[in-house]
Every structure is written in structure tokens, then in C-alpha cells.
Amino acid sequence: MDIQKYLEKKKKIVDNALNSYLPAGRDLSGLTSAMRYSLFSNAKRIRPILAIAVAGSCGGKQRTVLPAACAIELIHTFTLIHDDLPGIDNSDLRRGRPSCHKAFNEATALLAGDALCVLAFEVILKYTDKKVEAKMLLAALREISQASGLNGVVAGEVLDIKYERSKVDLSELKRMYALKTGALIKAAVRCGAILSRASKPQLKSLTSYADHLGLAFQIADDILDVVGNTKLTGKPAGLDKLRGKATFSSLLGVEKAKAAAQNEITAALKAIKGFGGRADPLREIAKFVVERNM
User: Counting Cβ atoms within 10 Å, is residue 236 exposed (0-12), middle (13-18) or buried (19+)?
Assistant: First the structure.
């Protein structure tokens, strides 16, 4: 399959849905503009597309998982806005243009992130698909909330800050990555499976796929920070080294980090071996994750 065409097609579907949840129009002191500025930047929409692809692999429907998929993208965008703030990564560039706090101001960026986070849960609670039972909706809510806070992205960011200019071993780094990057990827995969009524064995296999994919995704980001072209990646190169961050590249070197990423992708593909051709998009997304802009 042509993964680029698949991603472009699904991205349009996700973008249209996101636009319906956060339409342009009445703007409260620039807040909506700041939210839309970050939400509709040059994003690949990997997380919501994963949820859609998982639905396809389990015999589910795209429309059934789309609201939850969009909610995860709203959460993801909120974390990126906050991640770029001066108090955390102090990054002036995101996806090839000024970060939200540079385009607006720090206070507006902070509040735009907060509003996107709240909007995510509003989107889920407005589910209108009658095939989505209350227990399925609650399960999806649980996945997304756990992946977002104390047991997910926010905790991962705290560790990321804590580990700056510190000696960190590989097991600690993997734990941080599982929270910082892997949690939302796993939530997308598991929500796609839960809302598609996947069996317990299917859910277990897909969760394993997500765990390995999430780690590979972050390792690839580590490598891009060293060898990536800012014009292609859309964010400053060398920022991890400048801030003294612990990364796979700093611990292992670029070549061994590349091998580690490939090993994780191999394990991810093995996890979904029993899904047959319906899981081809998941396989191609996994390969794309480690090949993007490298």
C-alpha cells in the first residue's frame, strides 16, 4: 500500500472533524485563534490515524472511533504547546513556524493548552454514535485520562525535566518515554480497539504493538534532534544536547539508537502478525515512524 496516500486521506478526515469541534468564529480574546494556530499547524495526525487503522484491523468503523481519535489529538496538541513554553523546553519553533507562545504570548499559550485539554473530554462526552455503549465510552475516557496526566504525558514531562544534565540509565529512559510519548500512542491504539469491540487477545496484541511503536517513535525523535534538518522536521535541531537531555542518541550514539528503533519496530510488527491484511496500515505506519525525515 502507499502509506503516504493513506496518511494524507485519513489526515483530511481528522482535520475536517477537528474543524467541526473547534470552528473559527467567535473568539474570546484570541484564545480560539491560539488553539487553532497550534491544532491546525503542519501535523501528521499519527495518533488519531492509528486509532482509525486499529478500527480497520478489528472490523470496526472509522466513524465510531473518530471522536475519541480527535480527542487524543487535542490532548497531544495541548502537551506540545506546554512543552514549548520557556519554563519547560523553551522552544521557539514548532512544525516549521513560531511556537504558540511566540506567535501569541506565554499566558495565551498556557490557557490555549488548558482549553484544548478540556475540549478533548467535551468531545468524547458528546458522542452521538448509538453503537458506542456507555461502558465502551467510559473505557475510552479512562484510557485517555490515564494517558494524559499523572500516569502519562504530564508525568513523563516531569521526568524529562528532572533528568536534564543527570546520569540516567536505559531502563529509566525507557520508563520516561513510555509516559512522555508512548502513553498517548497506546491510548490511541487501545481506544481504537475498545470502541471496535476487539477481543481480549486482540487488545493484548495491539497493546504490545503500541508499546513498541511508542518507544520507536521517541527514539526516532532523539535521532532527528542530532541528524535532522530543521527545514524538514519543523523544529530546532540540537535542542536536546543544548538542554542536556537524556536521550537514546546521547546514551548509545546515533547508530545504536537507529538499531534500537528498528528492533522496536520489528517487535511491533511481530505483535500484530495474526491480524492479516487488515492490519497493513498499522504495519506501514510503524515503518513510517522510523523513516520520517531521516
Answer: middle
Distance CA 276, CA 285 (A): 15
Strand segments (E) across the chain: 93-94, 97-98
Span 131-179, pLDDT tens digits: 788 999 999 999 999 999 999 999 999 999 999 888 889 999 999 999 9
Q: What is the pLDDT of residues 173-207, one digit of tens each?
A: 999 999 999 999 999 999 999 999 999 999 999 99
Contact 284, 1 (CB under 8 A): yes
Number of domains, the chain: 1
Residue 175, C-alpha cell as written in the block:
520508563
Q: Whole-angstrom Cα distance, residue 267 to residue 138? A: 30
Largest CA distance in the chain: 52
- Secondary structure (3-state) at 14: helix
How does DSSP assign 129-180, residue by residue?
-TTS-HHHHHHHHHHHHHHHSTTSHHHHHHHHHHTTTS---HHHHHHHHIII
Using DSSP bridges, classify how beta strands 97-98 and 93-94 pair: parallel, antiparallel or unpaired.
antiparallel
Q: Exposed (0-12), middle (13-18) or buried (19+): which is 181, by Cβ within 10 Å?
A: buried
- Return the CATH number at 274: 1.10.600.10
CA 181/CA 219 separation, integer angstroms: 10
Range of the domain at 191: 3-291
User: Judging by beta carbons within 10 Å of its beta carbon (0-12, 13-18, 19+), is residue 43 exposed, middle or buried?
Assistant: buried
Question: In whole angstroms, what is the distance from residue 194 CA to residue 132 CA?
Answer: 10
pTM of the model: 0.93
